[in-house]
Design goal:
Order of helices and strands: HEHHEEHHEHEHEEEHEEEHEEEH
CATH topology of the largest domain: Rossmann fold
Largest sheet: 6 strands, parallel
Strand order of the largest sheet: 6-5-4-9-12-14
Oligomer: single chain
Helix content: 25-40%
Number of strands: 14
Radius of gyration: 19 Å
Shape: elongated
Number of domains: 2
Number of helices: 10
């Protein structure tokens, strides 16, 4: 197994389990203890994990987020959404991701999708994001080029916001974008709690050939503070718990659910 593949496999294990031992890596990666230690040391130097005696644990800086970004009861629905979103992505696309737990799930699936990986050393996908946790998650994927916007860090969400974030997005074009929402009203549109995050999400949508709000079904019918302009949205990606009535209302409101 090549070094890049080993590093990706180690991060996948940590994302799923939170910790790993060198003895396990030796068995799973069919490598020597010395190589396993060097791989862990390399990832630790990049602040992607924390070394322990005999192994490593997930890096708290890279993976632990404020409370609204922790695991919740809707993780299964977010995974459904992530898989549906990644099915739209093709090699050589430029994809925009806002911050949020659902878009983080999409980033995880993008990194794991073998169909998007090419020959070693070739970049096959560009991801543009204003979320530093998403950028950190994808930084170790050698086939993914990551562009991070400028801006001021919102320490509640790990998103870069403000005029610099918007102006950097205004200078590029995107094939696809996926933006999160805290609420989604059929007649009104998607909504967010923070006006500066909403402005960046709108900019992502404007720069995209196709753009989707990604929100689990619990968000449908919920209100929040700032309304996003829905004019340029292609549609909504949600989970299978959405009702027929919700589906019809969103379509009538100009936000059809992507099938």
């Amino acid at each position: 197994m090549k070094r890049e593949e080993r590093l990706n496999h180690i991060l996948d294990l940590l994302a799923n389990r939170g910790q790993i031992e060198i003895d396990e890596l030796v068995q799973q990666l069919d490598t020597s203890p010395a190589t396993a230690r060097r791989d862990l040391d390399s990832l630790a130097a990049a602040s992607l994990l924390t070394r322990t005696h005999g192994g490593a644990v997930s890096n708290s800086v890279a993976y632990d987020l404020p409370s609204r970004f922790q695991r919740d009861e809707h993780d299964e629905e977010k995974l459904q959404i992530a898989k549906a979103a990644v099915a739209l992505v093709r090699k050589d696309m430029v994809v925009g991701l806002s911050g949020g737990t659902t878009t983080k799930a999409i980033a995880t699936e993008l990194g794991l999708c073998q169909e998007l990986a090419g020959e070693p050393g070739r970049v096959t996908l560009t991801v543009v994001t204003n979320a530093v946790n998403i950028a950190s998650l994808l930084a170790v994927r050698p086939h993914i080029r990551v562009m991070v916007t400028g801006g001021v860090l919102n320490d509640r969400s790990y998103e870069l916001v403000g005029p610099m974030a918007q102006s950097s997005l205004a200078r590029i074009t995107l094939d696809l974008s996926f933006v999160g929402a805290n609420g989604l009203i059929a007649e009104t549109g998607p909504m967010l709690r923070d006006e500066m995050e909403a402005a960046v999400n709108e900019q992502l949508v404007r720069q995209s050939a196709r753009s989707f709000v990604v929100a689990d079904s619990s968000k449908i019918g919920q209100r929040s503070f700032v309304i996003l302009d829905k004019e340029h949205l292609t549609g909504v990606i949600t989970d299978t718990k959405v009702t027929q009535a919700q589906r019809a209302a969103l379509a009538a409101g100009g936000m059809p659910i992507y099938e």
